[in-house]
């Protein structure tokens, strides 16, 4: 039973840290992508993906950074940021990406294999990703609050306002630890000049 309790406690503290770390890094990458350098790529293949009644074009693009050649699989978005739509909409958008067409592609100078057609419409800016990441952080913080309240009540015999203060402090410290780790990881990923 003690090992199970220890694992639950470990998850209770690690989950918010990982949630905040993941979200902060994704948003930071999206913010950096706006200033990524541009290269000319060439479309090699186009296909339509279907998900229920929704369609989306998917294109393979070959490009080179220096002497190294890369291939990137992209799902282009429309001018208004729309990524899925009717079959007619997807076909119309895919006409801009016929095989052999030259297209601008933005690549991460630190990791040239990471590229995007539209840095301003990356996944972290989509409302669905923002809601999902918000819920992920909220649920992990709620799990942390419930777990730390039980820990403080059962093992440290705290009660009343001292529990509320202790839970608030541990929650803030845990979330800040996740943000600090994200900043540290982001700093180590920056290319050295």
Summarize the structure.
This protein has 193 residues and is of the alpha+beta class. 51% of the residues lie in helices and 21% in strands. It is built from four helices and five strands, in the order αβββαββαα.
List descriptors.
single chain; 193 residues; alpha+beta; 2 domains; five-stranded antiparallel sheet; 5 strands; 51% helix; 21% strand
Radius of gyration: 22 Å
What is the strand arrangement across the widest sheet? 3-2-1-4-5
The biggest sheet amounts to: 5 strands, antiparallel
Q: Which consecutive residue ranges, at least 5 long each, have pLDDT under 50?
A: none
Large-scale geometry: elongated
Helix content: 40-55%
Summarize the helix and strand pattern as letters.
HEEEHEEHH
Q: Give the N-to-C terminal Cα separation.
A: 52 Å
In DSSP terms (H or I, runs of 4 or more residues), the helix count works out at 4
Determine the strand fraction and express it as a percent band: 15-25%
For the residues shown, what is the average pLDDT? 81
What is the tally of beta strands?
5
Q: How many discrete structural domains?
A: 2
Given the helix and strand composition, which structural class is it? alpha+beta
